[in-house]
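Subgroup meeting minutes
Present: P.N., E.W., G.H.
Scribe: E.W.

1. P.N. recapped why we're keeping a running log of single-chain structure predictions: easier to compare across weeks, and new members can see raw inputs and outputs side by side.
2. G.H. added today's entry (322 aa).
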Amino acid sequence: MRETKDGKASKRFGKDRRTFPIEKYNSRADRRTSQNGAMMFSAFVFVAAFCAVVAVELLLMGEPSVWGFVVATLVALLATMSIHIALQWEKVVVLRLGKFHRTKGPGIYFTIPFIEQIALCADQRVMLTGFAAEETLTSDLVPINVDAVLFWMVWDAEKAALEVENYYNSVSLVAQTALRDAIGRASASEVAVRRNQLDAELQEVIEEKTSEWGITILSVEIRDIVIPESLQEAMSAEAQAEREKNARMVLAEVEKDISSMLVEAAEQYQGNDVALRLRTMHLLYESVKGSGGTVVIPSAYSEGFSDGSLEKMIESLKAQGK
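Output recorded in log:
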């Protein structure tokens, strides 16, 4: 039993089960840690500019003053607003007077304070987004839970900044919508069996929409599919019945082939008494060899083992050979 967002318990799926922890696998939660280097660089620029202005004031005036500290602070702020650093995996979109001007990074880049603004600092590493479709109806009206993960990356920072407001949330919503649509077009058994086809279909649909935002989809992987417990037994019985049906069909085909071969053998033995007697002797020999002892046979069959009978058989076979 799991708790919904309303605080109410949902018992539709029988077993106690928590939904897929999407937030745990989303890359966005750890993106702030990648900005530590840039923040330290900005702090270094501020301190260096402040100290440089104070040092110049001391050389010129001989002693510090309040106005000197004010000027040093203003210069340090302007330096911080002008000198930036982009990490190896970042691409920065710079606007000039509200219009797109250029993309910069990685490394050091400069901007004009109050004239140029940083619109987006795009992370171009492979991103991971978890998404789910909870209690979504399939084409045969079966409510199922499907959890999946999406691997994607930003290949065009300009489009990611100018074509969509929040590309990260947009990718997540598009993926969830595509998953629900794909589930609604397939039956419950098809969703459970055709995972690879569903992955490929989702990747194609999601990338068709996100490519306009400068985002490429690397792969989509279905992680978990949960079917209501009440339907699992019915689907299991259906699968067993289908396997039994296939087994009976295979057995019928084998019986058909065996009967055809027996009919052909009967036609061969019907026109050749010697071949029939030889087959009878062969069967008796196999019986004795398999049992490891002796076999009691009627006298009519034992006549076939006498010397006279064997000579007659040989002469008959030679005559047929001529």
